Amino acid sequence: MQTLRVGVALPDPPFNGMPDGTGLDIDLMHALGDKIGATVEFVPYEGADFEGVFDGLGTDYDCVAAGTTVTPEREKKAAFLAPYVISGQSLAVDTRRLPRVTSVDDLEGLTIGVQRGNTSQPIAERLVAQGKARAVRTYGYGTIRTAITDLTTGACDAFMKLAPVLTELVKPVPGVEVVQRGITVEDIAIAVPRGDQALFGRLTVAQAELEADGTLQRIRRKWLGNPYTDQNLAVR
Predict the structure, then answer these.
(1) Could you tell me the end-to-end alpha-carbon distance of the chain, in angstroms, rounded to an integer?
(2) SS3 state at 198
(3) Whose CA is closest to 231, among 214, 217, 213, 210?
(4) Residue 221: enclosing H or E segment and its boundaries?
């Protein structure tokens, strides 16, 4: 393999889409490429629904590295390497507008924003079904920054997304803060086409070597502040 084509969904900082084009997944895939002797090419996924990213596996790109949570439904579409990060959903609000909201237990009568196809969507929908929130507002995958701004205007009351990403996204927005973390525990892993045992094996060995030689720990520390796989152990 001369080139390893990697599907990425932008923006998803700190995994990808940082202002200078860098990110955790970018560093990880370049390190994996070096290990297997391949040049890495990143292929942006343009769909509004993240679930569609798996449709391009084996055709548009060879693997997906996009801060991707492993779920039973996704395992029907792709094979996943061992998780390189374990994290969970978090909740952000404009604390000036909604100072009483500190967790998902405080969302009665409010609208929760999520990205279409994100693992936060079924969680938010379940809260609505249980009468613990008023409604879910879905945003196209690439409109995440609009969603965060909507928290300040009232177009959306709360937003739910993976903690490292949401923490990064709210930094430039005055008043908007992550008020709850650890809502879920989710494995984040690289996806490859089901049946491509050769690529799966090569990347599995390479990732294990990066873990063993300290490279992956350094990458996690650089982008997440915690060198360990389980980011829920971090005090952020």
Answers:
(1) 40
(2) helix
(3) 217
(4) helix 215-224
198 CB neighbour count, 10 Å cutoff: 10
How big is the CA angle at 150 (ends 44 and 54), to the nearest 5 degrees? 25
User: Whole-angstrom Cα distance, residue 92 to residue 167?
Assistant: 8
Q: Which amino acid is at 154?
A: G
- Six-digit token string for 91: 């909740």
Distance (Å, rounded) from C-alpha 66 to C-alpha 56? Answer: 13
State the pLDDT at residue 234: 52
Reported as a single tens digit per residue, the pLDDT across 81-132 is 999 999 999 999 999 999 999 999 999 999 999 999 999 999 999 999 999 9
Contacts of 138 (CB under 8 A, 6+ apart): 113, 114, 115, 116, 121
Task: Report the C-alpha dihedral over residues 173, 179, 183, 184, rounded to 10 degrees.
Answer: 40
Cβ atoms of 74 and 54 within 8 Å: the answer is yes
- What is the rounded distance in angstroms from the CA atom of residue 77 to the CA atom of residue 180? 31
Question: What are the backbone angles phi and psi of residue 17, rounded to the nearest 5°?
Answer: 75, 20
158 Cβ contact partners less than 8 Å away, ≥ 6 residues apart: 91, 92, 93, 98, 101, 107, 110, 111, 112, 113, 133, 151
Cβ(57)–Cβ(66) under 8 Å?
no
β-bridge partners, 138: 114
The DSSP 8-state label assigned to residue 8 in this structure reads E
